[in-house]
Design goal:
- The protein has helices at about 5-20, 30-35, 55-60, 85-94; strands at about 20-30, 45-50, 65-70, 80-85.
- By secondary structure, it is an alpha+beta fold.
- It has a 4-stranded mixed beta sheet.
- It is built from 4 helices and 4 strands; from the N terminus they run αβαβαββα.
């Protein structure tokens, strides 16, 4: 596990803990998953979470949450992008 894996897990876990959600899955995505990364490739991750029961019953859960290091410039090899989807939103998109 590299520092980006750990950082992605920490970001996802923190979001879920803060909101009472349960983190179900987090995975590499993009060039590092497909083996097409270069020395300048950023690190992309996608994940799924189960919203807390109150948010699910009220339908007030966040459909997706994106974490980006910096939106003002092109990503580089020190950047991490993480996108989390609620399980309901993910299944509805399929």
């Amino acid at each position: 596990m590299n520092k980006f894996d750990k950082e992605a897990i920490e970001l996802a876990s923190g979001f879920c803990k803060e909101n009472g959600h349960k983190l179900l899955l987090i995975s590499k995505f993009g060039s590092h998953l497909y083996g097409t990364n270069t020395e300048k490739s950023d690190h992309d991750y996608k994940g799924l979470y189960l919203p807390n029961i109150n948010d699910m019953l009220c339908g007030e859960f966040v459909k997706s949450k994106t974490f980006k290091i910096d939106d003002t410039r092109k990503n580089n090899d020190n950047d991490l992008d993480l996108e989390l989807f609620s399980l309901q939103y993910f299944l509805a998109r399929q």
